[in-house]
Amino acid sequence: MTTEQTTSPPRAGVGIAARGLGQSVRSGRQILADISLSIAPGEVVAIVGASGAGKTTLLEILAGVQQPTAGTVTYDGTAAAGTIGVVPQDDIIHRELPLARTLRYAARLRLPSATGPDEIGDRVAEVLAELRLTDRAATPVGLLSGGERKRASIAVELLTRPGVFLLDEPTSGLDPAIAVELLRVLRALADTGATIVLTTHQVTDVDHCDRVVVLTRQGRLAFTGTPAAAREFFGLRSLVEVHLRLDEATRPAEWPDRFAEQRDAEQPPLSTDDADVAATPPRRVGRLRQWAVLTARNAEIVVRNRLTLAILLGSPLMVLGMFALLFRPGAFEPSRPSPTVTVMILFWIAFGGFFFGLTYGLLQICTELPILRRERLAGVRLAPYLLAKVTVLLPLLALVDLALLGVLRGMDRLPPVGGTDFAALYATLLLSSAAALALGLLCSAAVSDAAQATLMLPMLCFPQVLFVGAILPVPAMAVGGQWLSYAMSNRWAFEGLGHTAGVERLWRDGGSPLGPPLLATYGDSFSRPVWVDWLVLGGFVLLFLGAAWAVLVRRDLRRAS
Ligand SMILES: Nc1ncnc2c1ncn2[C@@H]1O[C@H](COP(=O)(O)OP(=O)(O)OP(=O)(O)O)[C@@H](O)[C@H]1O
């Protein structure tokens, strides 16, 4: 790749103008009011204010992530923002992957599809150098220092060379020397043409900025201008005391009114009739490429996280060991079957497949919601995101389901079924695991964190035990229970396995006197052709995945929650 092809042209920087911005929340409370300010291309701007003053809200409005309830934002005089790099407060990138790998995946999700692997490699190297991270390229993100992780988070956005960078508290949690180093990096970015806006609690950060925007506790603009002008305006030698000065005001609007007066005297009022806020959505990489990149990244994360992989594969093997210890061989022996044991074996196999699928899916989304939210801003779509999860986890489930059936069959815990019937048992179990995986993803999409997801586990498992028809046959249930049993994916798996395993014939014609009465209690539970069970299980897969998608759309991941 030649330098001409890989070195991006210098950015022009983007001027931002906000006019009369206001933001109210559902309760009616106004968290920002009447904010008008102009930011010149290539400026480094700090937004300061007490906790809860509305700094993040203002930043998100400037980013187009939130729509204001009043006012407008324009970028270089137009409503189209172009590419904006939004760097959230938390270092939200996967911690398992080496930094350069993380950036490669981020680049493949953000840069145009036509960008080749060499060009992506060059771009990643360029960004690493620019953020002074070249020597950390092979270090897993989780092992980087706080300051390095912040720079890594900025590097993700720098890949697309945005004209505007908006950073939420980039210096929080950093020691002062590292914070200064980071601010220098931001200054260097601004010098190459990017406009930088950041929020900060460290008023000393302001000295490294061209402009400071001061908000009052009530979300009003107390000042915007150079740090020197701010010191003069507030009559302070250091802006460290600016919050005290604001709090000394006799009325909330005192400083905003004084500033408005001063500004009006110096310049004409800013016009408020610009175009509406409309950050242009970033040009998206196609769905297929997104799916391929996300799948590759998920697979690499699973493989690199050895402990997770060991748990994913090891826990089903432990369950398999328990089954082998629990069930004696020969329960399906036609001359002397144990009908009640056959029910339990089939039920627990079905439940095993369900449980593996559910637990595989349950933590997948809720543990990376902030990452997903960030990637949604970069144009990642939800359907490829969900399918990429399934693409990586389903083969693992296929492996453990095969081991479960193969070993139990080999140890004479299952009937000696031949190739086609074994394949049918396997298809039923795998579809059941897939439905449970989709259910797990749905629940993971609906909750906010891993603790909530874990609390849901009993709620999801109990009905799949009670209403399946194994512990109590469906015909023997109360009417409500019978209806509920239709909604249990595990019921269809259990009955499908029973059909293929030939329990009807075994109980009716086998050598156990317990068989016929048991068959009478179960009615025609096992007489349905197994493809009907497959259709229903396939329907559950689609239903749960569709619902997971809808839940994520509804959560409106483009907005901060
Ligand atoms: N969606 C929302 N619904 C209700 N209140 C909200 C919402 N978003 C923000 N707020 C409130 O608006 C105020 C401003 O929030 P914001 O996060 O912008 O402040 P901040 O200055 O960034 O605070 P901090 O410095 O503590 O991060 C806070 O009181 C916050 O609780």
Automatic annotation (TrEMBL):
<dbReference type="GO" id="GO:0005524">
    <property type="term" value="F:ATP binding"/>
</dbReference>
<dbReference type="GO" id="GO:0016887">
    <property type="term" value="F:ATP hydrolysis activity"/>
</dbReference>
<feature type="transmembrane region" description="Helical">
    <location>
        <begin position="384"/>
        <end position="405"/>
    </location>
</feature>
<feature type="transmembrane region" description="Helical">
    <location>
        <begin position="459"/>
        <end position="484"/>
    </location>
</feature>
<feature type="transmembrane region" description="Helical">
    <location>
        <begin position="534"/>
        <end position="553"/>
    </location>
</feature>
<dbReference type="Pfam" id="PF00005">
    <property type="entry name" value="ABC_tran"/>
</dbReference>
<feature type="domain" description="ABC transporter">
    <location>
        <begin position="16"/>
        <end position="243"/>
    </location>
</feature>
<dbReference type="Pfam" id="PF01061">
    <property type="entry name" value="ABC2_membrane"/>
</dbReference>
<dbReference type="GO" id="GO:0016020">
    <property type="term" value="C:membrane"/>
</dbReference>
<keyword id="KW-0547">Nucleotide-binding</keyword>
<feature type="region of interest" description="Disordered">
    <location>
        <begin position="255"/>
        <end position="278"/>
    </location>
</feature>
<dbReference type="InterPro" id="IPR003439">
    <property type="entry name" value="ABC_transporter-like_ATP-bd"/>
</dbReference>
<dbReference type="GO" id="GO:0140359">
    <property type="term" value="F:ABC-type transporter activity"/>
</dbReference>
<feature type="compositionally biased region" description="Basic and acidic residues">
    <location>
        <begin position="255"/>
        <end position="266"/>
    </location>
</feature>
<protein>
    <submittedName>
        <fullName>ABC transporter ATP-binding protein</fullName>
    </submittedName>
</protein>
<dbReference type="InterPro" id="IPR013525">
    <property type="entry name" value="ABC2_TM"/>
</dbReference>
<feature type="transmembrane region" description="Helical">
    <location>
        <begin position="339"/>
        <end position="363"/>
    </location>
</feature>
<feature type="transmembrane region" description="Helical">
    <location>
        <begin position="307"/>
        <end position="327"/>
    </location>
</feature>
<dbReference type="InterPro" id="IPR017871">
    <property type="entry name" value="ABC_transporter-like_CS"/>
</dbReference>
<keyword id="KW-0067">ATP-binding</keyword>
<dbReference type="InterPro" id="IPR003593">
    <property type="entry name" value="AAA+_ATPase"/>
</dbReference>
<keyword id="KW-0813">Transport</keyword>
<feature type="transmembrane region" description="Helical">
    <location>
        <begin position="425"/>
        <end position="447"/>
    </location>
</feature>
<keyword id="KW-0812">Transmembrane</keyword>
<dbReference type="InterPro" id="IPR050352">
    <property type="entry name" value="ABCG_transporters"/>
</dbReference>
<keyword id="KW-0472">Membrane</keyword>
<keyword id="KW-1133">Transmembrane helix</keyword>
<dbReference type="InterPro" id="IPR027417">
    <property type="entry name" value="P-loop_NTPase"/>
</dbReference>
